[in-house]
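sorry for the late reply, my laptop died twice this morning and i had to redo everyting from scratch. anyway the thing you sent over, i finally got around to it. pasting the sequence first so we're on the same page, its 333 residues, then the predicted structure underneath. double check i copied it right bc i was rushing
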Amino acid sequence: MISSTNLSDGATLVSNDGSFELGFFSSGSSTKSRYLGIWLKKISVQTVVWVANRCDPINDTSGVLMINSTGNLVLLSQSGSVVWAPNSRNGAQNPVLQLSDSGNLVLKDRIAGKTETLLWQSFDYPTNSWLPGMKLGWDLRTDLNRRLSAWKSSDDPCPGDLTLGIERYNYPDLVMWKGSNKYFRAGGWDGIGATGLRLPEPNLYFTFNVTINEEEIYIIYTLKIESIITTIVLNQTSSRLQRTIWNEEARTWVVYSQLPTDDCDNYGIGYMAPEYAFDGQFSVKSDVFSFGILMLEIISGRKNRGLHHLNHSNLIGHVGLEIVERRKHFSTN
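ok and here's the structure:
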């Protein structure tokens, strides 16, 4: 799309490979509220991955997206009032708007014989969806913080209180917030993976990479199998970051993995399992052990802290003795 054209409600802009589509849509049961957004085009269930006017719907089909005289994008309503306008560089000589095959909406200045200049891109301002090739993190040159914010509900794309982004420590840390409170953290990236992050193994579908330099700190992922359709979505209802993969046969999204995986991930509540203490090995039984200790504490009313006291058994020993005594009691009766 160039400055002499516009995109009205009912028209769409499609990526070259047909994977993504930009246009106007209605969310939920209301057909009056219209949003400008990007959705996946090759699947039967409309899945919106980016929204421009998240909290300012247009109440009819009069919306128009255009490039104004200064080379900036503007979304106008019937009255001509500006509904949405991103911050971009002014003074573009030949502004062009393109929807890339990655789902990135890009505004650039294309001058013959010169290198194209990037003016603005939607990947710098994500909504609730993290797409392959999209950076999540910081541009230190401009202090731009690329972070996800969940939809308030499945029908309302306005941001809820659940957000996900990168905190800038010595190593980048993937953190989820509820409002101003930290809800989940994956642990700092050590060059191989996040120290507190458990991903399904082996990972057949995607690869995560981290970049840390003087200009940027970000996490990005790429697909190992280009034919699969997948998104990472921040879900307000479940308070989870969910990776979903499209199942064409069933025509539905399947949750492949999610964070946090359980409530212990949220609050860090748990006990060290023996196989980890002695051998340094973590297994699914570690969480089972931790959950079991918590349940024993609740049932017995006794904390698992007698291990250091020579005159008392720890909680497991205490429960073991109780079981032995009860068996003796039943055998004598």
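The chain is about 15% helix and 40% strand.
thats about all i looked at so far, will dig more tmrw
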